[in-house]
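Rather than argue in generalities, we have chosen a single entry, letters for residues, whole numbers for local backbone shapes, without further comment.
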Amino acid sequence: MRDFGGIASLHKCETKKNFFNCETDMTSSIAVREYAGSMREEWDAFVESSNNGTMFHKQAFLDYHAAGKFAFHHLMFYANDRLIAVLPGGLAQNGRDFWSPVGASYGSLVTGDIPFEQSLEVVDALLSYARECQWNNLYLIPPPLIYSHKYSQHTEYSMLYRKFGFELHYISHAVELKYRDDFLRHFDKTARKTIRKVLREQHIRICESDDYDTFYKILLANKARHNATPTHSLEDLKRLRQLMPEKLKLYLVYEGDTPIAGSLLFLCNAKVVLCFYNMLLYEYEHRKPIYLIMHETIRWASHSGYTWVDIGVSQVPQATDPMTPSLSLINFKERFNARGILRSTYHKQLNQ
């Protein structure tokens, strides 16, 4: 993924004065407006009621970033003064490349359950706006289809029809929660046996927690093992907890009184729980705490009415090819009846 760290807010599409009417070759007109802080309530309410929006699309989420860290340039799309789509994003390459998301996991166009023709109009309006701003490239990363309340790929097909291509694909894995209380029977034999053994061991326990300091120590130690650093600082996580307390859920696993593992869940929307961090102290790996975490996460999500648990991408971070799959990680996730889902980057070059 591209690093947007340190990009200042350096570019606006000044020629349009933050408002742009795109007359397409169809019968309707889409108005495109650049987001301003006064629109926050309208924006977040739209995302919450949308078909494919997630916590990552909300201004409440993006507010955890320090002011000026990114060149944000969010867009709102109106049909007859009615908001029908939003697009969070920002600018790189001296203001010539637009990325969505910036500073989040998922971006791209958020819409209601709109018909295909309107989806195409929105994509055409975006392309017209981008050309007016003299942008060179668009990069859009939508959430996978499982995040949509009503399955629809109108927007994705509209982009492909307008000759967007793909830059990258990542493979994520997700567990469908269709078995509810009977989910354990659909794990593989090793997972079932391990979980039952851990559940019998009374000195190992898992509980919901608000102790982000302890979790972050586990996170740092785990990442150091892989010569990596966390996506978020401890201050970032505490800020997110403050901004969106209803969207974060933290588990800690203890051996006796010693914390040995933890999991931070993002409750992305009403359908999907995302395991953003599943971490353990490797000296306790033999206690199999991640099996306990997966059991409790899927149990809780099933009982809470969610449809999917997204366990995240399964790539080898150090590989030359960023699409290189981590076979060991994928094999582990498949123990819990997880299936592969694509996380794709759509790309449109505009200066051809």
